[in-house]
Predict the 3D structure of the following.
Amino acid sequence: MVEPPNRLRRLSAVLTSTVLAVVGSGSSVSGQAGLQAEVTFTKDIAPILQQKCQSCHRPNYIAPMALMTYEQVRPYARAIRQQTAQRTMPPWYIDRTIGIQSFKSDMSLSDEQIGTIARWVEAGAPEGSPGDLPPPIALPEVSSSPVWELGEPDLIVRSPTVTVKAVAPDWWGAIGETPTGLAEDRYVRSVEIREVNDVDPRELARGGTVGGLFVFHHANFGLAGPDGQTDPQSRIPAHEVGRNPDQFDPRAGRLLRAGSTILFFDNHLHANGVVETNAHLELGFRFHPKGYKPTMEYRGIGFGTTEVDLRPNEANQEIDAYTVLQENAKILNFEPHLHATGVGMCFQAIWGGRTETLNCAGYNHNWVRNYQYTDDSAPLLPKGTILKITGYFDTTAKNPLVYEPRNWTGWGNRSVDNMIVNLPYVVPMTDEQFAEAVDERRKKIAAGQATPIGCPTCYLPEGAAAGSSRASR
């Protein structure tokens, strides 16, 4: 899995188009269309939309158009083909040609589904027989709140409300605190954070810079116990614009103490450019059963660089950042965080003379994605491993989130400034725990149940990973 030296240069050219176009050209799909059965809306397209699109694309909800019926979908057929072929929608930007491909709550379309949509459009977007239409799927009732992706939480904590004018400078600061109301300690298995506001997506001007549906760029949280003291080990992962939920390692639940209070101490707000907006955050917690005890720790190791120097009106710009693992670790997620001009990031691990690409992903600052590895795909990396990220930037007018391509930009906290950060969480391991995890992964690789990507010591003889320090000598 050692990548050719020019691999990242080729990826840069792809990523700087703001999305990853990983589907073959329309002509190649068209050439196969005549050899396959007719594709229709009722038989082939409606099931895809139900599975991947209608949770957002339904009447009076957060997407700009409903995609529930043939009459609603037909005017957007070509746009749907383009957006799905480029993998801008659904918003899941992992490069499917390199790195780990197994994630929790993967909302992406398969290549087969994308090809089906393309063939349907090229055939003239026929409706098909009404008898082929699947029954409507059950969807939560539409309200002012986005749907809970992981189902109804066990506990919902609401932030204080903020008001953001249609046009205003970015704002940072604390917005208050909210008691959890918990009467006993509970361990959290997942947390989902959603922004609730009065923005009507139909009012928003498409294009322009960031903002759009959401006015919380990010929010960082603290947890204070009944004594008022904060507990850094119980910290909740940060919320970012459009971000998906966190599902913790089942052996490393996060503690939420009885009588605790959530501190909304660090918030970044930005205007949407269209309407004055009242907004708040809702934190949805799902608990482990009573009596659960974690066996492993859960820790954040976010890293990046402030050395950001982006030339105006230029695509294919790259910036690197590094960190070194001080302990053996299981990497739980890949979470690129750039700003408006960012269009992609690659995540690599360097150990024992080999460089391995864990993942590459496109980036859209209106939909920050947290790519959480499944338990059998999460990288197992020995201490001393160098973690590297490469951010890709496009400051030209071809990037729809660039408000002024003539401007130089550097590091900054505004959404229109620039940033390069990766926000992974890890489970640290002793040498013995690490050796057990590697041996277990080896067995699953041999059985075809896991991939060797992200496990460099899996290539060593059995038992050699008993301690990463010994294995690397």
User: Anything to note?
Assistant: Residues 7-132 form one domain. Residues 321 and 472 are 23 Å apart (CA to CA). The chain has eight helices and 26 strands. Residues 1-35, 205-209, 466-473 have pLDDT under 50 and may be disordered.
